[in-house]
Amino acid sequence: MSDAAELSCKEAARLMSKRQDVALTNDEQENLKNHLYQCLSCRRFEQQLGFLRQLAQRYSKGGAATENEPT
Ligand SMILES: [Zn+2]
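That is the input. Now the predicted structure with zinc ion docked in place:
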């Protein structure tokens, strides 16, 4: 039985926020993945989250990025 419970967009958003702080369970990951696969608006939301996260990390390190940036 590999049928995952269908997530609502609200649930998906909650999981995506949660994922930034703690690891999701296998079920949660699977459900989220399935939802993202068929939901464009949540995929966009995920991209935005990732982007904001990168920005936040960069600024929290006082500009010392881990990427190749000129000093
Ligand atoms: Zn959705």
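The pocket of zinc ion is lined by residues 9, 12, 35, 39, 41-42 (CB under 6 Å).
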